[in-house]
Amino acid sequence: GHPPGHPHPAGGGGAGAAKSSATVSRNLNRFSTFVKSGGEAFVLGEASGFVKDGDKLCVVLGPRGPEWQENPYPFQCSIEDPTKQTKFKGMKSYIAYKLVPSHTGQQVHRRYKHFDWLYGRLAEKFPVISVPHLPEKQATGRFEEDFISKRRKGLAWWMDHMCSHPVLAQCDAFQHFLTCPSTDEKAWKQGKRKAEKDEMVGANFFLTISVPTGPGASLDLQEVESQVDGFKAFTKKMDESALQLNHTANEFARKQVTGFKKEYQKVGHSFKCLSQAFELDQQTFSAGLNQAIAFTAEAYDAIGDLFADQPRQDLDPVMDLLALYQGHLANFPDIIHVQKGALTKVKESKRHVEEGKMELQKAEGIQERCNIISFATLAEINHFHKIRVRDFKSQMQHFLQQQILFFQKVTQKLEEALHKYDSV
């Protein structure tokens, strides 16, 4: 249900039909994200609520346009290897992760279902913010140990993105999740209920956003539209290439673990056979050569193992990052849809004013509220790019460093083998 590019007058555009629509028409598609997110109700001025100072979210003008105001107290949170815990005197066991937020230094234990609850709350509360997706809940075809460590790495990326986001990092539900002592059931439930009763969700969420005011602070609609369209094209391309890279990396890892390993070990085996054949010649002067060839065989065997272990060091982390970003990219169509819906309402109201069907004041209100959504959307787009550059830079550096170390290990094996021939 994307709003059409060219707004038609309500009611299909016949002269008779147009007369009856004295206000901006409502979106009839109740399943549209613009409607579900509360964006429509907000733009039409139907949201009202008292915004406490603590709930205010500021968008500021940075060098690259609108940005979320930075978190004045940045923090990180480590996620350590999960432990099995039991309840009901050992009847039921589950896995809990140890979280240590740097701003409190107090460790808490959280289960996957707690992460899941938090994700659900935040995805509902913030219509124009990309809440990172959680890694999958259950193992598919991998044995448990492997799966659990993989999921922990996914959760570590997730946590990093939560802490790096100026809005998500500071929101109450997330802070409750990070700081409520694991042993205090009562406090946990209270915080949970408080988050679930939060009034500043949906349409009211937009009321909490404060944007730059003053002469130069209103955004140009045309410009916003072209920026958002540009970003839409970007996300589509990035999604395709991330999928492609993920597929290629997966294939490459699989080949290294099975194919390359087997091929190198075949070569090693053949050298070994040669040295065994040479041993049938009982001459003492050829003993050195036989040992050197046998050593070369072992070197190739070892190189095969190096290939099999390598993807864990370099390709897997790249795929973990891609998985996280594919989650973000899946969020953006809805965010863009909310923005588009707001722009459509503004165009419609302008036309109604020209046709004398709406007071200017009402149209200006719509435009002002659309301006708020635009500021928030552009701030979110800016944040995405900033984090993306940071993440892909560090991940590519890690990848190449690991590749270099790997080839150094391979070279070292070959050099050792070569030296065995010096004394032959």
UniProtKB/TrEMBL annotation:
Pfam (any one): BAR_3_WASP_bdg
Record protein name field: SNX18 protein
Similarity remark: Belongs to the sorting nexin family.
Gene Ontology BP, a term: plasma membrane tubulation
Transmembrane segments: none
Source organism of this protein record: Nesospiza acunhae
InterPro entries: AH/BAR_dom_sf, PX_dom, PX_dom_sf, SNX18_PX, Sorting_nexin_WASP-bd-dom
Record GO cellular component, one term: plasma membrane
PX domain location: 75-185
SMART domains, per database record: PX
Domain of life: Eukaryota
Record keywords: Cytoplasmic vesicle, Membrane, Protein transport, SH3 domain, Transport
SUPFAM superfamilies: PX domain
Cell compartments where the protein resides: Cytoplasmic vesicle membrane
Region spans: Disordered: 1-21
A single MF term (Gene Ontology): phosphatidylinositol binding
